[in-house]
Write a structure and sequence with these properties.
The complex is a heterodimer of chains A (430) and B (482). Chain A is of the alpha/beta class and 430 residues long. Chain A is built from 12 helices and 17 strands. Classes of the chains: A alpha/beta (430), B alpha/beta (482).
């Protein structure tokens, strides 16, 4: 029933023509002086210098020797923070929601562990600069649909090719855990029908998992001595081998209370790595989640409660409840065109109980740890990537402006189509 | 609809007779700046006095607002809340249908909006039709019957819609796109939208003329002491009556719009028919024609974050509100969503962020400006003596992300109090609802609430399998209802 729209004109965007008005980034040695430096991992330096060299943070502190030839950016009155990391988006995968030709986030079929989001990331997407100028330097972009959607990717929002953008090409296989809950307020299936569907999906998932385990065992045996016939190759099962071996997590979308408990059991029984995403009803089972040790990507924070009888602020207060119980959390916006509002989601979580420092960590250091890149990003430390923002205030505040933005030591202009339209139309020529 | 469970705090029964003193807050009046350490005295639902150290008469309810911020109740000029039908997607012109006939005053989202400081909403039809029908203005007197929710004396408004939605639902559906199977119906293009509008107004003009002729003949007949045959009245037509009321300036037009060209088209059509009371809704390309909007005196109700969900919103910019404001257009920020409505004060903060709108002007965008757009600025939208005591009390400045709405008063009655906020604020319980039921909200951005009820007819694809099914499910749900 879904028809194609005639939108030839849209196809032009991938050529990057609309990026032409955006000046190129530049790199070099930069000294950010007189700044309030919020390191996130090691306290706050009230007045200090951060030195950027060869794309890395070369020095941070109150007394930093500025090498000759360094470009000095006076940051008096400004603060430096690590670049913000949005832990769940579809940035770069979807351009315009209602136009199927511009959507590449969902492949046909229920089991697609072999689909790679990075492949479909469009470096010229309008969404990238729009998200970036709000201080979000790094995102997880995840495929959707089916039971296994594909592999999510961790990218910096800067680069001409997906390879240049990739921090970790794949960070996990996205799973939409079978649900007994309703998918929407209007779903009219009976509870029995839903239960039947749930059991069927779970059975299929378990069968697939058994096959993946057997497949991995067969290949490992073959690879050990290379004798006899190699096992039959299977694209899907091959993609699951790193998960079976515990090298890659399942990134599990799960929201309803019972589903979360079931997902914890599912993961525990199989002794595999997992990261949960969404976790809308995590607050109901916060202790179980904490015990499981599974990190959670919470979001969207700016949402209605899952049940009509829940307190109005459950979605806002969910992150706080999880953090308090001891769950390792990061925050995601779970969308494509408002991924720039990451700090807004974190700020709302802070307004409803998450300590401000924790809210900041949930969009910097914690995601870096969860996604296995804490050696490179998430805090301002010597040796880490120079991926950071300079702001005129608390980045969680809605009115705060980003003044400078660096990704891997590149000073990226704070220009997007949105700012270009502002510049052009705030004063029309006639 | 199931049985209705009503529980409420005793204070509500005093509605209309109460005296309330809000003590010592920082009062954001919107029209008269910020007053630190100021009391507000409320008598019978109206603001009676504003100033320092007011005395509370005996028996008055005293609310301690020291260290807190008091602002006018937030007004949402574009809502679809508390209504059971969104689109009468059967004809491009359905001016006669009325939202007031389908209000559900017990929807829990009303309480949730109160918890975000909202006191008045303008609940509208969807955008399936060029001329959709008549919205309703409601005060969020949650727990009261429908007649008390609806502001009976609010000015009449009507919703128009331009662009992709009406062309998709009507003309393009009939051309075989989006399911097809309909008679050929204009509009399939923005040209068609203009002509549908012009035809409707022209027919209304002729209708008015017919009635005028009749009235004159009737008067002459009365004067001649009823001699000769009695003149026969033309047929009453609700649709044309409504359109005539627009031409007479009795109805404020709220026009769903995106692109600059179609916005200019409406200005031309309205000039030709002498219609002046015009508010553009969404108006995402308003920034391109802010000058023309200001010249016409048209108002604008927009958002900062909605873009890229369909092609006609691909050239939106969050600086839209600031640009239109700079050109002198009356700008409001609306929600169009039961989720976003709860944090419109954040939207005002974004007007400061994107384009540097001054704080008072930004606050006006969610209070006084929408009040003007629904024709109620003489009663609501600012903290002034004589105005309705619709107030929201925040823990911090409401433009801060850390601010939490602690209390909301409508007509001086506390309708939300965070310190007494129970776990369940539903008034209507669905007896079939399982306690295990949970649904996970779609990102509000993923669908166009304006189009609920329209898409199911057309089978149009709204941006994802889930959404399509959502709409189908919703329609099935509607049909199940008695």
């Amino acid at each position: 029933m879904r028809r194609l729209l005639c939108v030839g004109v849209v196809l032009g965007f991938s050529a990057g023509a609309w990026g032409q008005g955006i000046p190129p980034s530049r790199t070099g040695t930069f000294a950010l002086t007189n700044a309030r430096i919020v390191t996130v991992s090691g306290g706050v330096i009230e007045r200090g210098t951060l030195l950027i060299q060869n794309g890395k943070i070369a020095a941070v502190g109150p007394n930093v020797t500025i090498p000759q030839g360094a470009e000095v950016l006076d940051c008096s009155g400004l603060s430096i923070y690590p670049g913000l990391i949005n832990s769940y988006t579809q940035v770069g995968l979807i351009e315009i929601g209602q136009i199927p030709e511009t959507r590449d986030e969902s492949e046909v079929g229920a089991y697609n562990p072999h689909m790679l989001a990075l492949t479909a990331i469009n470096p010229a997407s309008t969404h990238i600069p729009v998200t970036r100028v709000a201080g979000v330097t790094t995102v997880i972009s995840a495929p959707t649909g089916g039971l296994l959607s594909g592999q999510a990717t961790l990218i910096n929002l800067h680069g001409y090719t997906p390879e240049q953008m990739a921090v970790r090409p794949s960070v996990g296989v996205v799973m939409n855990f079978p649900s007994v809950g309703r998918r929407s307020l209007f779903q009219q299936q009976s509870e029995e029908e839903r239960r039947r569907q749930y059991e069927q999906q779970l059975r299929q998932l378990n069968e697939l998992w058994q096959k993946a385990v057997a497949y991995n065992r067969a290949w490992e045996a073959y690879e050990r001595n290379r004798s006899g016939e190699p096992p039959l190759w299977d694209q899907r099962l091959e993609a699951l081998r790193p998960v079976v071996r515990g090298e890659l997590p399942f990134l599990i979308n799960v929201n309803a209370e019972r589903d979360i408990l079931a997902a914890i059991r599912w993961v525990r029984e199989r002794k595999i790595k997992a990261i949960f995403a969404g976790v809308a009803e995590g607050w109901r089972v916060a202790d179980s989640l904490a015990q499981s040790g599974i990190p959670c990507i919470v979001g969207p924070v700016l949402a209605l409660p899952t049940r009509p009888y829940d307190r109005y602020d459950r979605a806002y207060a969910n992150a706080a409840a999880l953090a308090k119980a001891g769950v390792k959390i990061a925050i995601g916006t779970f969308d494509y065109y408002n991924a720039r509002n990451l700090a807004h989601h974190a700020g709302m979580a802070a307004a409803f109980g998450l300590p401000k420092e924790e809210a900041l960590k949930a969009i910097t250091l914690y995601p870096a740890q969860i996604w296995g890149v804490a050696d490179r990003m998430g805090s301002l430390e010597v040796g880490k990537d120079a991926t950071l923002i300079v702001t005129d205030g608390d980045p969680l505040e809605l009115r705060t402006q980003v003044r400078y933005l660096f990704i891997n030591g590149w000073l990226v202009p704070l220009v997007s189509r949105h700012t270009q339209l502002w510049e052009e139309y705030r004063r029309r020529a006639f | 609809m199931g049985f209705i469970l009503v529980f409420w705090i005793a204070a509500l029964s005093a509605d209309g007779q109460n005296v309330v003193l809000i003590r010592g807050g920082t009062v954001l009046t919107v029209t008269r700046g910020t007053l630190p350490n100021t009391d507000i005295l409320i008598r019978d639902g109206k603001i009676a006095q504003i100033g320092p150290n007011l005395t509370a008469p005996p028996g008055a309810q005293v609310i301690d607002a020291r260290g807190k911020f008091v602002m006018p109740g937030i007004i949402d000029a574009h809502s679809h809340m508390a209504i059971d039908n969104v689109n009468e997607a059967t004809n491009p012109v359905t001016a006669e249908v009325r939202i007031r006939d389908v209000v559900n005053p017990y929807e829990v989202n009303i309480y949730r909006a109160l918890a975000g400081g909202v006191t008045t909403i303008h609940s509208m039809h969807g955008s399936a039709n060029v001329i959709g029908g008549q919205p309703v203005t409601m005060k969020l007197r949650y727990g009261e019957p429908v007649e008390r929710m609806i502001l009976q004396d609010a000015p009449r408004t009507i919703k128009f819609a331009l662009g992709e939605n009406p062309t998709r639902v009507h003309g393009r559906a009939s051309q075989g796109q989006f399911g097809g199977g309909r008679e050929n119906v204009t509009p399939a293009t923005r040209m068609g939208v203009e002509q549908v509008m012009r035809k409707a107004f022209e027919m209304a003009r002729r209708y008015m003329a017919e009635w005028e002729v009749y009235e004159r003949a009737r008067q002459a007949w009365e004067r001649s002491r009823r001699r000769g045959p009695e003149p026969i009245a033309p047929r009453k037509d609700e649709r044309l009556e409504t359109l005539a009321a627009i031409l007479r300036g009795e109805v404020i037009v709220h026009c769903h719009s995106y692109r600059a060209d179609e916005i200019l088209m409406v200005l031309r059509v309205f000039r030709d028919f002498g219609i002046k009371r015009l508010v553009f809704q969404h108006v995402l390309e308003g920034y391109k024609v802010a000058k023309e909007l200001a010249e016409f005196g048209a108002m604008a109700s927009t958002f900062s974050d909605w873009w890229a969900y369909k092609f006609e919103v691909y050239y939106a910019t969050p600086y839209n509100a600031a640009i239109m404001h700079q050109y002198g257009v009356n700008v409001s920020l609306n929600s169009d969503s039961d989720e976003l409505v709860r944090r419109l004060y954040h939207e005002a903060a974004k007007a400061v962020r994107y384009g540097g709108v001054p704080e008072d002007a930004a606050l006006a965008m969610i209070t006084l400006n929408p009040a003007k757009q629904i024709g109620l600025d003489h009663r609501i939208g600012s903290i002034e003596v004589g105005k309705d005591a619709d107030l929201a009390i925040f823990s911090a400045h409401p433009l801060s992300v850390y601010a939490v709405c602690e209390m909301t008063l409508v007509d001086g009655v506390v309708r939300f109090d965070r310190s007494k906020d129970p776990d369940d604020m539903r008034l209507a319980i669905d007896p079939d609802e399982s306690l295990e039921d949970a649904y996970v909200q779609f990102n509000p951005a993923d669908y166009d609430r304006c189009m609920l009820g329209a898409e199911a007819h057309e089978g149009a694809w709204m941006g994802g399998v889930d959404l399509y099914e959502l709409v189908e499910e919703m329609m099935a749900h509607k049909e199940d209802r008695p």
